[in-house]
Amino acid sequence: MSEIVRPSVCDYDELTDLWEASVRATHDFLAEEDIRFFKPLVRNQYLDAVSLFVIRGNEGRILAFMGIREDMLEMLFVHPGVQRTGLGRRLLHYAVQCRGISKVDVNEQNENALCFYERMGFEVTGRNATDAFGKPFPILHMSLKSEGSSRE
Fold first, then answer.
1. Rounded to 5 degrees, what angle do the CA atoms 37, 133, 34 make?
2. Alpha-carbon distance values, 123 to 98, 115, 130, 146 (Å)
3. Ordered per-residue pLDDT tens for the chain, 152 residues
4. Residues 6 or more apart in contact with residue 134 via CB below 8 angstroms
5. Global pTM value
6. Domain coordinates of the chain in residue numbers?
7. Does domain 4-102 have CATH number 3.40.50.720?
8. Phi, psi at residue 117, to the nearest 5°?
9. What's the distance, Cα to Cα, between the start and end of the chain in Å?
10. Full DSSP string of the chain
11. d(CA 29, CA 26)
């Protein structure tokens, strides 16, 4: 099983491509124009704003990645071809246990992600009606439940 490692700036194009593939598979509420709006932001701003961690496949290709800042999981994306194989869970466990994250924001329309984080011990603590750009994509704020929560 591949280790969780730090990528380099040379991996940003691959990370952005993985982001796009994952978003197209999971964010059916986004229009093509929304993806075109966010993609350069991911590539040129968001990746630099977080501490990145990846899981690579046997061939060296990135299969999943996450970005964290302080106690916040800012992003977690898994290639559509390997979703539901435990890679997201591995990254999240690492983020919680080794990096001290306790918060995550989720698009309300991304029901699979919401269910995933709830199964992993997070609960909704707040809601914004729009995203940071004022777009009509409600954001749910989630926090790790206190001790005694059921985490897989």
1. 25
2. 20, 10, 19, 10
3. 589 999 999 999 999 999 999 999 989 888 999 999 999 999 999 999 999 999 999 999 999 999 999 999 999 999 999 999 999 999 999 999 999 999 999 999 999 999 999 999 999 999 999 998 898 999 999 999 986 544 44
4. none
5. 0.91
6. 4-102
7. no
8. -65, -35
9. 19
10. -PPEE---GGGHHHHHHHHHHHHHHH-TTS-HHHHHHHHHHIIIIIGGGSEEEEEE-TTS-EEEEEEEETTEEEEEEE-GGGTTSSHHHHHHHHHHHHH---EEEEETT-HHHHHHHHHTTEEEEEEESS-TTS-S--EEEEEE--TT----
11. 9
Residue 150: both structure tokens together: 């059921």
